[in-house]
């Protein structure tokens, strides 16, 4: 038997995305967002949803670009800070000691120390209740060279954070449990 939890914003996994932008004066900023994911294959696109009240919302509207930096498990404190402080009030990069790196592809910075980066050009925005969904075309992906090899999956090397909305906590990625497009072949007629 299932128990109803009501209409809530809970799904699994929920990513930890650190969204990088420049404000109207060119100041780099980053904020943590969990409402997002891949939304199109061709062209490759990702969507993030932000409230209009955020500093990042206005920066994306102005610059028409953003980056997504994916932190590792060992960067949980910095990722959390990017989500609890406002770039309107503080320089988050200075506070954390992390480096804003200017993208050569889009008009937005990314977090230099984070291992996986998506550089995105805004394609459209859609107002959905309290949030606006920003759909960005992925123009490039950058990954730390030291993580690229054939011997182990990139996800195990990056060790990306996952957010649990039900208890507002961060988790790591678990072990491999099956291969996509083959684990379920036994049911194919």
TrEMBL record:
Domain of life: Archaea
Segments forming domain Flavin reductase like: 9-163
Pfam family name, one: Flavin_Reduct
Gene3D superfamilies found in the cross-reference section: Electron Transport, Fmn-binding Protein, Chain A
Keywords: Flavoprotein
SMART domains, sorted: Flavin_Reduct (SM00903)
A GO term for molecular function: FMN binding
Cofactor field: FMN
Family, similarity comment: Belongs to the flavoredoxin family.
PANTHER family according to UniProt: FLAVOREDOXIN, FLAVOREDOXIN-RELATED-RELATED
Protein name as annotated: Flavin reductase family protein
Native species: Methanobacterium subterraneum
